[in-house]
From TrEMBL:
It comes from Acidianus manzaensis. This is TIGR00266 family protein. Coiled coil: none annotated. InterPro entries: AIM24, AIM24_sf, Trp_RNA-bd_attenuator-like_dom. Gene3D superfamilies: Mitochondrial biogenesis AIM24. Pfam families: AIM24. NCBIfam families: TIGR00266 family protein (TIGR00266).
């Protein structure tokens, strides 16, 4: 089976060592390098409708397959942690943007989320669904916190900080705070209520938070270091006023 090595601390990358004939597939936007001997091709994995569903969630319509022998290196787009999750017939639900790559035995599909969680959590109406036998690698934005819930144990996760959870867990959306919070708060309005048993992966940074801080330091947006107004740029799909 493929061998893996995660390198780094706050800014990580992962090396994948493929033997002849071994395959993985992933998001080409996260590929740093590959060996000349490693074959690469773009595929519509799972068929046309699976590709459409991935596109709806913010994932890629096509995936890129790599076949050994050789080495492939993947990295996240923000500082954070890379984790490999071994699946043996079970599955996980995850934000599509956190996906790096998976072994050939892992199926990559989408699963309908709770309608309100999709609308208010900012991740569309679907979540990425990985299941099968093998390893799938995902990356967090910022720090990574893993919570292992016992049967009946409940936590509330701010919607945009939910990275992944075990398939089959019970969850729903909850609004926290009244009119004052809705008018003046920028985070914490909607929490995902998740009930155990199962594992939940939470990342401490969101794209929106990062974009706001960058905007502040370069003279625009609502970050801590800047003023409103001026022309704009786009960071990670987020429009920033300069």
């Amino acid at each position: 089976m493929p061998q893996y090595e995660v390198v780094g601390d706050d800014i990580q990358y992962v090396k994948v060592y493929l033997n002849p004939g071994e395959k993985i597939y992933g998001d080409a936007g996260h590929v740093v390098m590959k060996s000349d001997s490693t074959q690469m091709q773009t595929r519509m994995r799972g068929g046309f409708f699976a590709g459409i569903k991935r596109e709806i969630t913010g994932g890629s319509f096509f995936v890129t397959e790599f076949q050994g022998p050789g080495e492939v290196v993947f990295a996240g787009i923000f500082p954070g942690k890379i984790i490999g999750l071994p699946l043996a017939g079970n599955g996980i639900l995850a934000q599509s943007h956190t996906f790096l790559f998976a072994e050939d035995g892992i199926n990559y599909d989408e699963k309908m989320a709770k309608l309100t969680a999709g609308l208010f959590g900012g991740e569309g109406l679907f979540l990425a669904h990985f299941y099968g036998a093998g390893n799938v690698f995902i990356h967090s934005y910022g720090g990574l916190y893993v919570k292992n819930l016992q049967p009946g144990e409940v936590i509330q996760v701010e919607a945009s900080h939910l990275m992944a959870m075990d398939d089959g867990m019970q969850y729903s959306i909850q609004r926290v705070g009244g009119l004052r919070s809705i008018l003046f708060a920028h985070e914490g309005l909607f929490f995902v209520r998740i009930e155990g048993p199962g594992r939940v992966w939470i990342h401490t940074l969101t794209i929106e938070q990062l974009a706001q801080e960058i905007a502040g330091y370069i003279g625009g947006g609502t970050g801590t270091g800047g003023q409103q107004g001026g022309p704009g740029i786009n960071v990670g799909g987020i429009d920033i006023n300069l």
